[in-house]
Amino acid sequence: MKLLEDLDYNELTQAVSEGGFPRYRADQLNDMRLRHRDYSEANNLPKAVKEYFSERYLAQSVKILETVKGKDAEKYLFLLHDGNIVEGVFMPHNYGNTLCVSTQVGCRMGCVFCASGLNGLIRNLSAGEILGEVLAVNALKGGTPTERAIGNIVLMGSGEPLDNYDNVVKFLRMIIDPKGLNFGARNISLSTSGLADKIKKLADEKLGIVLSISLHAPTDEQRSALMPVNRSNPISELMAAADYYFKKSGRRIIFEYALTAQNSDDNSIKQLIKLLKGRCLHVNLINLNYVKERGMSGLSRKRVDQIVETLNAAGIGATLRRSMGNDIEGACGQLRNKYLSSNAAEDKA
Ligand code: SAH
Ligand code: SF4
User: Fold this and answer.
1) Residues carrying an active site annotation
2) Which residues line ligand 2 (CB under 6 A)?
3) How much distance in Å is there from the Cα of 312 to the middle of ligand 1?
4) 89-101 confidence digits (pLDDT tens)
5) How many Å is the maximal CA-CA distance in the chain?
6) How many C-beta neighbours within 10 Å does residue 236 have?
7) What percent of the chain has a predicted confidence (pLDDT) above 70?
8) What's the mean pLDDT when you consider all of the chain?
9) Whose CA is nearest to atom 4 of ligand 2?
10) Which residue windows are coiled coil (predicted)?
11) d(CA 27, CA 29)
């Protein structure tokens, strides 16, 4: 069955006219889905419209299965219509609430420090499913289509967004659309492990969103050991793509760097400075979240502070990203994996 959230506004008006209904029904259906409501909750729609659409398009396809409240963040397990589960994280900030969403069930990039890719890629999320994560949380938090409860969106949940390129770009267009949630592009960040060709393609879409690149190592040798994607997208190509994105969008690139023993000795930091110097960028350091299956962990607070100071002293803007939600399973992918394994244990019992 098709999903109602997968239709962009033009496709929705087309579906309404194909059904022989007046055009304003599209706005009512649009309002219904933006409020994350099902057909049964749309009191202004006549029975004929509800019947016609519910036979053809599933509404409210993403549901919140579980909410885990932490000290400074709230995590969700989203249930998809086929039983798959992805996760999201809501982080309240004084400059606007941020929601982190997933773009794939699993991931096939195989970064050695990440929990999302432990079982490989299960499937892509459709544009409407990514949108559904945002709509579900907006409704949960009391937001409406015009008075949003979410200020910023980051595509940093499970999945490699540029490995699901068409659906992600359609989602971005739908959420920026004034007929959608009317988000400002500068309030949306996409994080990628570094698919160079797709970064250039994204620049050419001229969406104006913020690009974050997961760098995590200063040399090809070190980066390939942590991130297999580097073998086909070496650092020189990645930096050229980043420069192209900056030139086209005018937005400074964010480089993410998760600190762990393999990438944080003095020599690595020296090489990192050499690589990044002279570019308009910002470095987001993350102390690596412990992932049991990978046996990797972060650094001492003292060493982390030293690295921030060294980068800043070299003229490279770097800040440590506050690790939100550590008390409720920190890193991407951990929550879902924990949920699945505890349920598997129950099934066996
Ligand atoms: N696939 C995309 C976006 C999702 S991951 C990407 O890789 O960029 C979001 C961020 O979390 C990335 O920067 C990723 O490298 C980082 N990350 C993954 N596992 C982590 C861990 N154990 N500790 C800290 N950051 C981690
Ligand atoms: Fe995939 Fe990103 Fe995790 Fe790498 S860090 S495995 S690209 S989700």
Assistant:
1) 87, 332
2) 107, 109-111, 114, 116-117, 158-160, 193, 214, 332
3) 23
4) 999 987 889 999 9
5) 69
6) 11
7) 92
8) 92
9) 111
10) none
11) 5
